[in-house]
Design a protein that fits this description.
heterodimer; A: 113 residues; mainly beta; six-stranded mixed sheet; four-stranded antiparallel sheet; 50% strand; globular; B: 114 residues; 11 strands
Chain lengths: 113, 114
């Protein structure tokens, strides 16, 4: 079945450091890809998405590029802030009736001042 | 515009009991999906409701059931609770229009089964 694999956490960085969180997927076909963020005590918020190969999603300084050849969608940010501390989830879905999301296990990011 | 709301926020139940969780979808949204998020894991799709009918189901047993009402709000019912049902239950609504199916998540209900 479809699955998403994320780099294991937790990840701890100093403020202004460069962030990469790796995400690869296994799927038959070409899904849409997403990054969601979950702040403590809150639900999931969509951070960015890409719907086809070579698309780049971006939001709030975060970027991810849909790489079909490597089945990857790695999340990057050039300079993290303390406020970026959260759990980040990579996810996929297919067009069709339910379009349910299949999530990775999440990566906890802590940014220290 | 009101976002997705869920109630209650927290709930403690005993093994074998039944529980009902509630979700109010975002204004203008006609589709509700439910997810289970165990501690330290990503959310797992339980099922989706569209126009009051189940429209897709994940790998969950029949004791997980749901309803959607004419105002598009939804309930998740779990019978015969087991310890492994302890999790954060997330509701997400979407507009199911041509093109963008973005799902908007509520804050979740934390269920503890003892």
């Amino acid at each position: 079945g479809d699955s998403v694999t994320q780099m294991e956490g937790p990840v701890t960085l100093s403020e202004e450091a460069f962030l990469t969180i790796n995400c690869t997927y296994t799927a038959t076909g070409y899904p849409s890809l997403f990054w969601y963020v979950q702040y403590p005590g809150e639900g999931l918020q969509l951070l960015l998405k890409a719907t086809k190969a070579d698309d780049k999603g971006s939001n709030k300084g975060f970027e991810a590029t849909y790489r079909k050849e490597t089945t990857s969608f790695h999340l990057e940010k050039g300079s993290v802030q303390v406020s970026d501390s959260a759990v980040y989830f990579c996810a996929l879905s297919f067009s069709g009736s339910a379009r349910q999301l299949t999530f990775g296990s999440g990566t906890q990011l802590t940014v220290l001042p | 515009e009101t976002g997705v709301t869920q109630s209650p926020t927290h709930l403690i139940k005993t093994r074998g009991q039944q529980v009902t969780l509630r979700c109010s979808s975002q204004s203008g949204h006609n589709t509700v999906s439910w997810y289970q998020q165990a501690l330290g894991q990503g959310p797992q799709f339980i099922f989706q409701y569209y126009r009051e009918e189940e429209n897709g189901r994940g790998n969950f047993p029949p004791r997980f059931s749901g309803l959607q009402f004419p105002n598009y709000s939804s309930e998740l019912n779990v019978n015969a609770l087991e310890l492994d049902d302890s999790a954060l239950y997330l509701c997400a609504s979407s507009a199911r229009l041509a093109g963008d199916y973005e799902q908007y998540f509520g804050p979740g209900t934390r269920l503890t089964v003892t």
